[in-house]
Amino acid sequence: MKKRLVIAIDGPAGAGKSTISKEIAKKLDIEYIDTGAMYRALTLKVLEKGVNIDDIDKILDILESSSIYFKNNHIYLDGINVDKEIRENRISKYVSDIAKIKEVRSEMVKLQRQLSKESNVIVDGRDIGTVVLPHANFKFFITASPEVRADRRYKELLLKGEKVTYEQVLKEIKTRDKIDSTREVAPLKKAKDAYEIDTTNMTIQEVVNKIINIIEGR
User: What reaction is this protein's catalytic activity (predicted)?
Assistant: First the structure.
């Protein structure tokens, strides 16, 4: 019997993790779990309920009473597809503040590990190779310069009709990087046994091909 395939993809905001992971999932016919989307879904619900992002007890109550799951590469919050809503800039602005809460991460990691047990998977986030799935078959750390990541995010938001400036997005990217890499629990960092890929001067397809070649031993 073949060993179950578990791929961990980590990296900072805007590096292209989600897009790359989705493409790999399609090509290898495996399940994709976007852990960042899970934190975004929780952030969406917290904001919609008007809860202060510093009120840990209320945020934990919301998490405990929420249903977050994936189906056919779509994320559902309490049974509703929230693919579009969780990508709004208001979510990006606060998701790192929610994700750095120790108790929130602890509960999310349990859920992520459970989801990852069900099939061959590719999982992306900030702490997959280091904390969530330290025994993954393959680990990759996807990165790019803050300026390139901000430019990608800026263009993405413009296409969605959001009114933002490049300078605003770059500032938010740098702020998220600082929060993610300095938080007390499960900070963003490259696993010792992860392949690092700088996507600054690469296309999505080039990155996808490189990762698949490594996985297939080419």
Answer: CMP + ATP = CDP + ADP; dCMP + ATP = dCDP + ADP
**By residue range, what is the domain housing residue 163?**
1-30+121-207
pLDDT digits (tens, 9 = 90+) for 89-102: 899 999 999 999 99
163 assigned to a ligand binding site: no
pTM given for the model: 0.84
- Domain match, 12 and 46 both: no
161 annotated as ligand-binding: no
- Please give the single-letter amino acid code of residue 13: A
Instruction: Give the whole-angstrom CA distance, residue 182 versus residue 195.
Output: 22
Instruction: State whether 132 and 167 are in the same domain.
Output: yes
Is 108 domain-assigned?
yes
Is residue 25 marked as binding? no
Q: How far apart are CA 141 and CA 8, in angstroms?
A: 8
Which residue in the block uniquely carries the two structure tokens 């800026």?
A: 154
User: Are 159 and 101 in a shared domain?
Assistant: no
